[in-house]
Design goal:
With 259 residues, this protein is an all-alpha fold. 71% of the residues lie in helices and 0% in strands. It has ten helices and no strands.
Length: 259
């Protein structure tokens, strides 16, 4: 298990480095493959030795080697954060065949959450392909582990989540973007794969986290009723929290209500 967690951590560092490119370029409609990454100040291509996740930023002391322009600490934070989430996901699933599917959820979730925070938009370029990648990876896991019931539950979970979010958007479009609706089906598949209880927990936690953060912004950051707060990060955070501990929360709730 320790080896798996270590390997996933290293993979997370590399994926996090790529996600920095995705987050910067996808909202602008630019290619994530070319041209190579360059300093936004002097536009000099970043050398391979300076592109090592986290370490490169530390060795450069957060500045471009050529022009001295500050490099945002967000870059190493995204890399380290993705590595931590990959490690946590490996700890949660171990050698379960579904692990690659949930690592993909982490990767695309980090990218979408950051983009939504930056531009208040969830790009179709990331959301729509997930309707192919996610069920594909889960289908491979279902075949490998003989979990056809989980795959069916994932499909139903995706439909339930999409239908629920569509209803919320239809009834109150000012409170939610349609990008959130499109993402909800993907989130529902991942939650449904585990259990229907986790599906409910994940949907609930997304709204709970959103409400708590919004209250905090009003109380401590001077936000008002007209302050726009993207919901995508809350949906994704709630879903991931449910993936980690949702079943425990459901079991604890049932034990209290049944007793």
């Amino acid at each position: 298990m320790r080896v798996l967690i270590a390997l996933c951590s290293v993979l997370g560092l590399a994926v996090g480095s790529f996600l920095n490119v995705v987050v910067h370029r996808v909202p602008r409609g630019e290619s994530v493959v070319s041209p190579p990454s360059a300093c936004p100040g002097c536009e000099h291509p970043i050398r391979p030795r300076d592109n090592v996740p986290v370490l490169g930023w530390l060795l450069l002391k957060g500045r471009c080697r050529d022009c001295g322009e500050p490099i945002s600490p967000r870059y190493p934070l995204v890399e380290a954060g993705t590595a931590a989430l990959f490690a946590l996901t490996a700890w949660r699933f171990g050698l379960d065949p579904a692990l690659p599917a949930y690592l993909y959820l982490v990767a695309v979730g980090v990218a979408l959450a950051l983009i939504d925070l930056d531009v208040h938009r969830l790009p179709d370029a990331l959301t729509l392909p997930s309707y192919i990648v996610a069920p594909g990876l889960l289908a491979v896991a279902a075949v490998a582990d003989d979990k056809g019931d989980a795959l069916l539950r994932a499909a139903i979970g995706g439909l339930i989540a999409f239908g629920f979010y569509f209803a919320v958007w239809f009834l109150y479009p000012a409170g939610m973007g349609f990008g959130d609706v499109k993402l909800s089906g993907v989130v529902g598949m991942y939650l449904g794969w585990i259990s229907y209880g986790v599906l409910v927990a994940g949907l609930f936690l997304g709204f709970l986290i959103g409400a708590l953060v919004s209250i905090g912004l009003v109380l401590f950051a001077g936000a008002g009723r007209k302050t726009k707060v993207p919901f995508g990060p809350f949906m994704l955070a709630g879903a991931y929290l449910a993936v980690l501990v949702g079943q425990d929360l459901v079991d604890a709730y049932l034990s209290l209500t049944v007793a």
